[in-house]
UniProtKB/TrEMBL annotation:
Keyword Membrane: yes
Protein name: Transmembrane protein 145
Stretches assigned to the GPR180/TMEM145 transmembrane domain: 196-416
Region of interest called Disordered, as start-end residue ranges on this chain: 480-510
Lineage: Eukaryota, Metazoa, Chordata, Craniata, Vertebrata
UniProt feature coiled coil, ranges: none
Keyword match Glycosyltransferase: no
Ranges of residues in domain GPR180-like N-terminal: 37-167
Parts of the chain that traverse the membrane: 194-214, 226-248, 260-279, 299-316, 336-354, 366-388, 400-419
Amino acid sequence: MEAPRGPALHRLLPPLLPLLPLLLLLPLPPHAGAKYVRGNLSSKEDWVFLTRFCFLSDYGRLDFRFRYPEAKCCQNILLYFDDPSQWPAVYKAADKDCLAKESVIRPENNQVINLTTQYAWSGCQVVTEEGTRYLSCSSGRSFRSVRERWWYIALSKCGGDGLQLEYEMVLTNGKSFWTQHFSADEFGILETDVTFLLIFILIFILSCYFAYLLKARQLLHTTYKMFMAAAGVEVLSLLFFCIYWGQYATDGIGNESLKILAKLLFSSSFLIFLLMLILLGKGFTVTRGRISHSGSVKLSVYMTLYTLTHVVLLIYEAKFFDPGQVLYTYESPAGYGLIGLQVVAYVWFCYAVLVSLRHFPEKQPFYVPFFAAYTLWFFAVPVMALIANFGIPKWAREKIVNGIQLGIHLYAHGVFLIMTRPSAANKNFPYHVRTSQIASAGTPGPGESADKAFPQHVYGNVTFISDSVPNFTELFSIPPPASSPLPRAAPDSGLPLFRDLRPPGPLRDL
């Protein structure tokens, strides 16, 4: 969608686009669930974590190629699984040395690959390059277990003089396009994203059709345009996610920068929708035409804080999430901050809706179902975070959380699309003032500001606010025709008659 007033949008919704180059240039860690892993390790430690993968119970496969100087012999590849007595017992266990970490391995489960020529299953042989003898090992290992398990691959040489290894590993689950390069906790993400992409495209098309009908009736208000913008950004986010996962399914690597861009767009859609809900709760485009100066500043500060927290969360994920642990977005300080901001937004939303209902009880057919429906939405994110952190097994967390998140977004957009459908039989339809009309604000009482004088069925606050002041109500505003007089509601239109407040000169504030 084209935004008629770019500068207003820049003031209102803290821009994410200028932050994109910074985020895309961030040094990214190796993909924790990487299916094709390669690198060159040199460390003074005697035990080092390499990578992890969630294998299927029957079809997991590791194919590897290792090479290191024969002088550094003999090194071992250790395969830990997610049992509490295995990986959790050794990773970041300061009280355990290399031998103690190796002692939890069960030899009968073939969890050790000794990188020497004496161990036939390692496929090692001695090669000479430029006068240096190397042990070159090329082989594979299949994984069988009673359920899907996380497996962690480490390198060790206890009591030696450090580790040195060139490695290349391909970790797969079967041979299907939909599973081969995916960790078991990622199964179904691509299919889910494609499904929701098609659904959101349908929602966006319907919103465009409804917008066409609303524009013909001069009822295409700012809040509905914000809804369309949120739906459109959601479509772009899912499109980039599908491209990323499709490429990932092909080569097992993917483009991590593309995934970060998709996450940014996903967050942007959420923020636009959240701002729209708060504005509707305050009565904007439903009972008033403008938000007060103080309210506009508060919204600017809040949305800036929320945006920065989302950006910090993405940076935190990229820089500080430990690939040796299966972590979730909300298992971080930034994630807890998002939950706190969500609670603050809900309290604000409740207060705004109650004030609007107190002054405009005739708007109950819209605000009561609106408040009930989005109360569920506001609590969905904190509840999802608690369920993900404490109720979903780590080997199934990512795919389940992905589906829940998309379902929450679909619920929010679907409910709003239904509630604002431009049907003559829809008594809950929130808009009644045309975009080309100016309503009387009434006469404020002693000590009252103009935005608190709520006349019936018209915009409440038409007090002029300077262009230099951040104002959320200018988002996607439609200017009136310069030469045509402002229309008045026809007696049989079902709309109230409005007192004409036009000054002698040209109108500047609509």
